[in-house]
Write a sequence for this structure.
């Protein structure tokens, strides 16, 4: 009898496994074909060159992933559901529970592959939400490197005042976690803030906007946990115990937002903060919960999908990790796990290019805030290059307190970088309207904008729309090689470069190499 039962259990397990991977596909890489895809930022160098083992996108939570790949030869691979994928270097091996995933020819170029795939499978909706224009025209100041947790009203006021005193423009202030009356509630701590709505109005009067960091966490020894621990509101482990995740706020349970009643409760409470207290928006951070997300009622992929949807009601939404069905309508911070160092800069450029090719056009890239503050005084030159690069990305995010930059020359050049952004910031504002309609990337790979001109390996310069070529300085030198495509390109000093041309460009006084098309 025991052997018979064991045999039935094994047969059932094998049946479930075969059903879960019902469709298998092998897709050969063509000669000279380059692919971008799956890993939105940082996990793999792009275009893909190194093999990677089978990765299950339905359970992957280490970084942003998408069931999408596009090639320089005009082909794309896409599925409406997460799949398992392996890359051998010469072929993709894909397993899907719902469909046979194939390579589809959308045209002959990277751009044609992206646009055909997008408009066929996840087209931009009419009147689709777009991020607030202020994200692109004014800086975003993340306080967490300076004050990681529980910033008081005086902390916030002083931070805003210091920004203005340092000569930087007003922008969006991102308040770190710990602002709640208790972790898990969505009401500001009265002892820390008093009249929170009055604080928001005060900041608005100075030209600032306010975003609050939102997490799914609930203090494991707080009143909310005690009241709802047996209700199914929190993620449970397979043995029935409540999952306790470690994050900067300690050890906490976290809401199971795959349950519709829990999701709607959080959405309503965010609406109250926005509508009644004047909060402009939210930074959604669930990173600490991800090791346990697979235990959510509907699984890890659905947990991230519902988390991503929480921001759809607000024009000022920013995410550290999310999971959508295609075109993400919110700001995305492709935060690395690295401190300020030279290797980070090249990774930032590569990540922003890949994100725009995979449906995340409203993106920025930053260093790990927990490691940033310790790096400020270590190498002033890498700090300068980091700030310069940040200033030309779609969202000009500054996670370094400007008054901590003590080198006078570096401080002046960092400030100049953000001051000089005004012109491209206005162009970015126009591009988001265009992108919402056409789904075109905002930051564009050179191969995307100038196909079949030898740019597939060009990961150290990029286009902003079709108007500006940006060649950021990624090393100590004030000179670098720039690869100009066809056309005439004009520097900020009026120098003209006629492409195609590969030449060395030298800048001075903290200038960022940006060239405008004469078209």
């Amino acid at each position: 009898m025991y052997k018979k039962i064991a045999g039935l259990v094994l047969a059932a397990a094998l049946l479930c496994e075969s059903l879960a991977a019902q469709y298998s596909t092998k897709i050969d890489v063509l000669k000279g074909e380059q692919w971008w895809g799956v890993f939105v930022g940082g996990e793999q160098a792009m275009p893909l060159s190194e093999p990677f083992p089978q990765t299950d996108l339905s359970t992957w939570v280490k970084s942003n992933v998408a069931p999408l790949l596009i090639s320089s030869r005009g082909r794309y691979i896409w599925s409406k559901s997460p799949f398992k994928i392996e890359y051998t270097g010469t072929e993709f091996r894909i397993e899907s529970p719902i469909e046979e995933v194939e390579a589809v020819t959308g045209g002959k170029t990277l751009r044609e592959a992206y646009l055909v795939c997008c408009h066929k499978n996840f087209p931009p909706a009419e009147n689709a939400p777009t991020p607030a224009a202020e994200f692109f025209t004014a800086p975003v100041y993340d306080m967490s490197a300076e004050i990681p947790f529980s910033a008081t009203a005086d902390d916030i006021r002083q931070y805003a005042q210091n920004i203005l005193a340092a000569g930087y423009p007003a922008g969006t202030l991102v308040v770190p976690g710990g602002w709640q009356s208790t972790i898990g509630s969505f009401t500001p701590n009265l002892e820390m803030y008093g009249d929170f709505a009055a604080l928001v109005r005060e900041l608005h009067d100075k030209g600032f906007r306010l975003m609050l960091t939102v997490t799914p966490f609930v203090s494991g020894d707080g009143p909310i946990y005690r009241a709802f621990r047996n209700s199914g509101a929190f993620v449970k482990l397979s043995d029935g115990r409540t999952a306790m995740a470690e994050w900067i706020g300690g050890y906490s349970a976290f809401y199971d937002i795959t349950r519709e009643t829990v999701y709607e409760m959080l959405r309503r409470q965010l609406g109250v903060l926005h509508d009644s207290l004047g909060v402009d928006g939210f930074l959604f951070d669930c990173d600490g919960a991800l090791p346990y997300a697979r235990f959510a009622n509907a699984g890890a992929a659905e947990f991230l999908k519902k988390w991503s949807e929480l921001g759809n009601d607000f024009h000022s939404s920013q995410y550290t990790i999310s999971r959508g069905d295609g075109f993400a309508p919110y700001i995305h911070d492709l935060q690395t796990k690295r401190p300020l160092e030279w290797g980070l800069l090249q990774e930032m450029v590569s990540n922003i290019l890949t994100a725009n090719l995979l449906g995340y056009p409203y993106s920025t890239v930053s260093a790990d805030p927990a490691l940033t503050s310790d790096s400020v005084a270590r190498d002033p030159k890498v700090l300068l290059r980091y700030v310069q690069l940040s200033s030309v990305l779609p969202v000009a995010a500054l996670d370094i307190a400007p008054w901590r930059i003590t080198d006078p020359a570096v401080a002046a050049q960092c400030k100049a970088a953000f001051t000089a952004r005004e012109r491209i910031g206005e162009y970015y504002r126009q591009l988001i309207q265009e992108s919402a309609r056409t789904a075109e990337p905002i930051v564009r790979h050179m191969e995307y904008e100038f196909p079949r001109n030898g740019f597939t390996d060009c990961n150290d310069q990029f286009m902003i729309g079709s108007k500006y070529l940006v060649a950021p300085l990624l090393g100590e030198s004030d000179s670098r090689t720039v690869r100009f495509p066809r056309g005439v390109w004009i520097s900020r000093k009026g120098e003209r470069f006629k492409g195609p041309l590969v030449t060395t460009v030298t800048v001075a006084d903290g200038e960022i190499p940006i060239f405008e098309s004469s078209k």
